[in-house]
């Protein structure tokens, strides 16, 4: 069985974060490691990202998503573009055809209204979407969850992060929802 893949957005999380590391952090390195994934195309607006990608793979590369989608119809599309571009990117893809699965980098959309709108569109087209929150698949956090559930204690957790709540803080929300098995309340601390 082969699952054909298209990569949209060829920046850091797709190909650069693990250049000098043995770990599998990027989409490219992770997908190439699994034999049943076949990368069919890569697409990015930046010429440099396309050139770097073409040096690493035999996949078709273009700055034009329409050209990629005209040539290939992969079952899985990985979207790793800036948040402000995600919704338009998904719309452009599903206007051409319906992949079985979309894996989208967090935070998926800019607000709840966009999320609900996109959820309805994807449901009508029978497309599954997953948001990339990899920490919840880490065995360390599964062990931690068992300990937390066993102790059944109340926790007050203080988290600091550099970027915005939407970009990096959403990882913590996802992780704590997973660890604690319930919704997490967020209090924004004023500086």
Descriptive account of the structure:
The chain is an alpha/beta fold and 191 residues long. It has 2 domains: 3-132, NAD(P)-binding Rossmann-like Domain (Rossmann fold); 135-180, no CATH class. Helix content is 45%, strand content 16%. The protein is built from 8 helices and 6 strands. It has helices spanning 12-16, 27-33, 47-56, 65-71, 83-96, 112-124, 139-151, 165-180, and strands at 3-8, 37-43, 60-62, 76-79, 101-105, 128-132. The protein has a 6-stranded parallel sheet with strand order 3-2-1-4-5-6, with helices on both faces. α5 links the parallel β4 (76-79) and β5. The N and C termini lie far apart (53 Å).
Q: Report the count of strand segments.
A: 6
Order of helices and strands: EHHEHEHEHEHEHH
Separation of the first and last Cα atoms:
53 Å
What is the CATH superfamily classification of the largest domain? NAD(P)-binding Rossmann-like Domain
User: What do the pLDDT scores average to?
Assistant: 85
Gross morphology is globular
Short description:
With 191 residues, this protein is an alpha/beta fold. Helices cover 45% and strands 16% of the residues. The protein has helices at 12-16, 27-33, 47-56, 65-71, 83-96, 112-124, 139-151, 165-180, and strands spanning 3-8, 37-43, 60-62, 76-79, 101-105, 128-132.
